[in-house]
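Example record

Each entry pairs one chain with its bound ligand, oxa(dethia)-CoA.
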Amino acid sequence: MSKLNIRGIGHYIPDTLISNDELSRIMDTSDEWITKRTGIKTRYVSSNDDTSILAFEAAKRALEDANITIEEIDLVICATITPDDFTPSVACKLLKYFKTDKIMALDINAACSGFVYALNVASSLLEANGFKYALVVGAEKLSKLLDYNDRSTAILFGDGAGACVVSADENNAYFYCKAKGDTNDVLYASGVKGSKPLNNSCCEDYYLKMNGREVYRFAVDALDDAITSILNKSQMTIEDIDYIVPHQANIRIIDQVAKQMNIPYEKVLTNLNKFGNTSAASIPLLLSEAYNENKIKKGDNVLLAGFGAGLTWASAIIKM
Ligand code: UT7
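Structure tokens for the complex follow.
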């Protein structure tokens, strides 16, 4: 068992809204197809700012909500698959923007499970090092990885960021983080291939590639396993959980798992109709939005569950 307290929470939505109708003007798709097959109606993209700025905006809001200054933070973790640069990390860029130093800072790449992985790592590192507070961020600018000639991926994803200030003192928390190799390469975005010394050519095609049907099958199994396993680990039942905050990939995945597990639909939160799939940002974005809307309240038991590239899947039960 671990410890985790959410001390503050915040999110940031970038400036540009793109509707399904707008996408259907630049590719062979329609509002009807996207809505019916995914549940997504709009997504937001950042026209100028890169991932670290989205992360910074969310982080400032979380610190303000916690009433804690950056000087009190001992650890910064950013979950992302779209860092601005190979190096420095987004977490280190946050230290630059906050004009602070002598803090442990690192990024985590576990795709759409990244925020849950990051909370797990934060809880462990806080305890192991005797740290007081961590700033944990999930931030993505997925629009820069999208091929707008590929209608099977371009309609799904959006940009955004969410952040929490956490401590590891009072409340019990439970974590379950798993991964397996992506044997059939069903979901990936290539980096720079490293076998061309003395040659400047790079980056032939770094766009996100996905076999939607294969990933869909994996996602349903992974989400079911993530929820089942964390309930078993915590010796809780679905009745003990106030809300489930699942990764926002496709409403059909969420509906199917809720139905097969007999989870009352009012316990399952969604906002993918507005934001699409924002990978590592999707869980903190939904958590923060639901908290700001007074849906999730202090003291609620919340089950977080993610799944995505890697392949990874992860869940947590935390008390707000
Ligand atoms: O966060 C990471 C995890 N990612 C996911 O969980 C994504 C999981 N996968 C999915 O959500 C779904 O597989 C998609 C939404 C990506 C696709 O939905 P689908 O129901 O699996 O569609 P499909 O790939 O089986 O394609 C059905 C048809 C195809 O046409 P034909 O071959 O039947 O003529 C596609 O070419 O729909 C076509 N299609 C589209 N049509 C209009 C694919 N994309 C589009 C589109 N607009 N955007």
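The chain has ten helices and twelve strands.
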